[in-house]
From TrEMBL:
Keywords: DNA-binding, Transcription, Transcription regulation. InterPro entries: AsnC-type_HTH_dom, GntR_C, TF_FadR/GntR_C, Tscrpt_reg_HTH_GntR, WH-like_DNA-bd_sf, WH_DNA-bd_sf. This is GntR family transcriptional regulator. Residues 2-69 form the HTH gntR-type domain. It comes from the Bacteria.
Length: 221
């Protein structure tokens, strides 16, 4: 990949993951090239790579657009997450992970709860998303070598987490944070079975929240 294409890839990927280009947004090469100050060729190459990453889809008669996920797609993605992340958590407990960092991230996420009632809910959800991604990444990198973290990155970075946290009630957020604390405890204890069970429950709870919210989202579109 050329330097210009890599630049286009990073910029467009960040826009998608930050929610600046939501699901269904059409990706016109000419418009993107103008925005990024590039020619169309590196933009086209970046779109192809994002398609391989699962963040972009090509729709007949429409062209490239940010991927839209059906409830069936969501079920499949969270099924994969449940298997792969539980495996990573078990390995992280058996091999060891940076538990101090995990607990720091837990505390930082919990501190965002107060902002939800202070008129800064969007910012709080976005910060929780960033911290949550780092929390899971610490576990993935401890639980696998190169292949497992790469696989999980591709599955998780399809823009699900951001949407999920915006749908969480305060009670659901607190449940999620409690599970994070328990994951850190299980890993600190070196108990692979415990870590596996907590991670599986954690991912499946996130799936239930997202699937519950999807019908309402469709009605408003």
């Amino acid at each position: 990949m050329s330097q210009a294409a890599a630049r286009a890839y990073r910029a467009l990927r960040e826009d998608i993951l930050n929610g600046l280009r939501p699901a269904g947004t059409r990706l016109r090469e000419e418009q993107l090239a103008e925005e990024y100050g590039l020619s169309r060729t590196p933009v086209r190459e970046a779109i192809r790579r994002l398609q391989a990453d699962g963040l972009v889809q090509v729709v007949p008669n429409r062209g490239a657009e940010v991927v839209s996920l059906s409830p069936e797609d969501t079920e499949e993605i969270f099924g994969l997450r449940s298997m792969l992340e539980s495996y990573a958590a078990r390995n992280a407990a058996l091999r060891g992970a940076d538990v101090t960092r995990l607990r720091e991230l837990c505390e930082a996420m919990e501190q965002q709860i107060a902002r939800l009632d202070e008129g800064a809910a969007d910012e709080a959800h976005d910060e929780i998303t960033r911290l949550n991604m780092e929390f899971h990444r610490v576990i993935h990198e401890a639980g696998g070598r190169r292949l497992l973290p790469e696989l999980l990155s591709r599955v998780i970075e399809v823009p699900l987490v951001r949407r999920t946290f915006h749908q969480y009630s305060t009670a659901e957020l607190n449940r999620s944070f409690t599970q994070h604390r328990e994951l850190a405890d299980a890993i600190a204890a070196g108990d692979g079975d415990w870590a596996h069970a907590v991670m599986q429950s954690h991912v499946l709870a996130a799936r239930a929240t997202l699937l519950r919210s999807e019908p309402d989202e469709e009605e408003t579109q």
